[in-house]
Amino acid sequence: xxxxxxxxxxxxxxxxxxxxxxxxxxxxxxxxxxxxxxxxxxxxxxxxxxxxxxxxxxxxxxxxxxxxxxxxxxxxxxxxxxxxxxxxxxxxxxxxxxxxxxxxxxxxxxxxxxxxxxxxxxxxxxxxxxxxxxxxxxxxxxxxxxxxxxxxxxxxxxxxxxxxxxxxxxxxxxxxxxxxxxxxxxxxxxxxxxxxxxxxxxxxxxxxxxxxxxxxxxxxxxxxxxxxxxxxxxxxxxxxxxxxxxxxxxxxxxxxxxxxxxxxxxxxx
Length: 269
Known about the structure:
This protein is α/β, with parallel strands linked by helices and 269 residues long. 42% of the residues lie in helices and 12% in strands.
């Protein structure tokens, strides 16, 4: 079963790899952890045919939500559904939930493998070189930033001829004449641009490998782990080790000094 976020390529690869292992029943839990307790949300049967083209569009096949039921209710649902492998896709909060589910399963002596797959554009998970979604977010965000920069450099804009009877044209001229300004302010918000776009090639390759490794880890008998890249190597990491505290930035690191240099800020910041 999957408790999924927007990681559609992860979902694709996990489903395909599970089928290669011969798994006959694969289901998706809609709207994250909430789907375990909401009786109105039916689980979604998944197969190669269902997921083979989902990576061609953004968004989430299973949907997303905040919060959810208690850990006991989630594990009760796992027992009722007969789920023995749970793949959880998300960031720090999602992984904290996965770790709690793993601990509750061990407490009840259930044979359920819980495996996390990191997906966050914040790139803030400990020990990992980078997480799926970060490269795509940076690439998409810089498009908005560069577009805004280029636009503010323009001193003269040649507009097509408008019909003077057009009410919009008339009101626009009247408004700017009244305020004594010819400025035109446009607002660019990349918030949803960077979350709903297709993954780039770098992220596509990364999450393909992570999705496959998640399944291999579960079939190897691991539980309470997450997959990722550490020091350029694909590894399995205990979930408690990557959620113990927020990822910090060293103010004396070369990375931070590169940031100061590129933005023209003084070194004492």
